[in-house]
Amino acid sequence: MRADVEWASIPALVRSAAQRYADAEAVVDGRTRISYAELGARVERAAAACLASGLETGDRVAVWAPNSLDWIVSALGAVSAGAVLVPLNTRFKGAEAADVLRRSGARLLFVTGTFLGTSYVASLRRAAGEGPGSGPLPGLPALERVVVLSDDAPADFRTWKDFLAEGEGTGAAEVRRREAELTRESLSDIIFTSGTTGRPKGAMITHGQTLRAYDIWADLAGLRAADRYLIVNPFFHTFGYKAGVIACLTRGATMIPQPVFNVATALANIAAERVSVLPGPPTLHQQLLDHPARDAHDLSALRLVVTGAAVVPLRLVERLRGELGVDTVLTAYGLSEASGIVTMCRREDAPTVIASTSGRAIPGTEVRVEAPAGTPGEVLVRGFNVMRGYYEDEAATAETMTEDGWLRTGDVGVLDESGNLRITDRIKDMFIVGGFNAYPAEIEQLLTLHPDVADAAVIGVPDARLGEVGKAFVVRRPDTALTGDDLIAWSRREMANYKVPRAVEFVTELPRNASGKVVKGELRRRRPG
Predict the structure, then answer these.
(1) What structural domains does the chain harbor?
(2) What is the tens place of the pLDDT at every residue in 50-88?
(3) How far apart are CA 192 and CA 245, in angstroms?
(4) Model-wide pTM > 0.90
(5) Element (H, E) at 100
(6) What share of the chain is helix, strand, coil (3-state, %, to 5)?
(7) Which of 173, 149, 129, 178 is nearest to 11 (CA)?
(8) Which of 23, 6, 29, 5 is nearest to 245 (CA)?
(9) With the C-alpha atoms ordered 98, 500, 432, 321, is the resulting torsion angle positive or negative?
């Protein structure tokens, strides 16, 4: 039976997994190990607390935290209470997070205390501590409650423990009644992804789309109950949350969240936990293979790798199979607007197909290219996985989706005679920094906030470690002495790390065409100087 028909909603899947795989290990987070039955109980308790806080079906709930058991429980608890999940990028600074919270109208926020030396609470206070509202963050009037996923919190916020305690008077029957209000067509999440305008746009995805897409993903990948899955891909991205948490729930696999990608930590986790599944961007696997201490760890349980986000070198596929003995290496392509998955290789595909393409359209979808066969053109997608539109942005939705249901991806690709898709370029000028999508227009807008910057353009340039990084071409304001180091240091304070340009070249003016648009091709042809 199709997953969206069998379960209809994510909370129904959680409950089913808790029953089917009750005694199996569900999550390993540091020293904490819980079974699927315990995970189901924790999610139900979190859902009860959400109901007790006054959350209504369709309310938006944001989670701003790294991969952890608490992220899984708070997110699934909110969704089980009928909320629409809004994951926030852990690399965001306070102003970036506040913007998405404001645009989504989130009523409740789950936030980590401190991560990578940064207090997210303090960062939010600086960005939204003043405004017309009367809640914990006056600059975000719709936000009624902030729950800190730690043992302490400011007086006007709640700790995770206290929040859960508030739901103790709410019974399982009330949680089930709320769950019963959800259908396949109910929104499950809004994934905000910046477009070429730099303005965040929230792709609306339903419960049915999520269930169907990641049951297919699990089937094509060959995920199974005995698998132990190291989830390095961040939960704020569909690759981490849906190809990770949701896919594991469908099969009863063990989730091992890792909050930050560190090669040494990943190697230790793979060996200690007998990890068998490790999806991630090619850079992750490349660093794993090249680490000097690799041979000191037992990686023999590793059997499945799924990668994407960039063309995968054939040599990488060969090394994963030959040096690590990985049975299955697959590539895939997706975007938030299409539930995170569009095409995927099949396990029987030849290594050359896996390395040179992103595979074929998944069942229930169509992919076409607006160009003659074998030549590059814009990639269009149609099917069950295409979003319901951008949240409260009809203009952007109309621009992206055709009247007959095709989604314009903004990516350029080529289809071969077997239907395998090869992505060759990005219309939107997006580049990928270590697996994170970086959008030049958004970075350019942030750079021009610097008082000494008159104009800026950003392109992606090759980088041996991260694949690509940003390079900024900057026009200084008259009579200023801004240096590249100054601007990079300022950028590190004002934007997520992956957006920060790694190089700055000062120019007297940017090359523009007759309509005033910057000619990025000319910038790419320039030599450093």
Answers:
(1) 7-15+29-194 (3.40.50.12780), 261-426 (3.40.50.12780), 431-525 (3.30.300.30)
(2) 999 999 999 999 999 999 999 999 999 999 999 999 999
(3) 19
(4) no
(5) helix 94-104
(6) 35, 25, 40
(7) 178
(8) 29
(9) negative
Residue with tokens 């990948």: 221
Instruction: Please answer whether residues 238 and 332 qualify as being in contact, where contact means their C-beta atoms are separated by less than 8 angstroms.
Output: no
Question: Are the beta carbons of 69 and 257 closer than 8 angstroms?
Answer: yes
Q: Taking the CB of residue 293, how many other CB atoms lie within 10 A of it? A: 10
In this predicted model, what pLDDT tens digit does every residue of 301-318 receive, in sequence order?
A: 999 999 875 557 678 889
Taking Cα atoms as reference points, which of 72, 363, 101, 352 lies closest to residue 217? 363
Q: Alpha-carbon dihedral of residues 26, 32, 38, 44, nearest 10 degrees? A: -100
Distance CA 14, CA 256 (A): 17
Residue 115: φ, ψ to 5°: -140, 130
The tens digit of pLDDT for each residue in 362-377 reads 999 999 999 888 888 8
- At residue 513, the pLDDT reads 57
Residue type, 371: A
Tokens 């989670």 belong to residue: 63
- Report the C-alpha gap between 231 and 279 in whole angstroms: 7
How far apart are alpha carbons 170 and 329 in whole angstroms?
46
C-alpha 512/C-alpha 67 separation (Å) is 42
Alpha carbon distance 85, 76 (integer Å): 9
What six digits make up the tokens of 198?
A: 């730099």
Element (H, E) at 514: none
* CB-CB contact of 470 with 460 (8 Å): yes
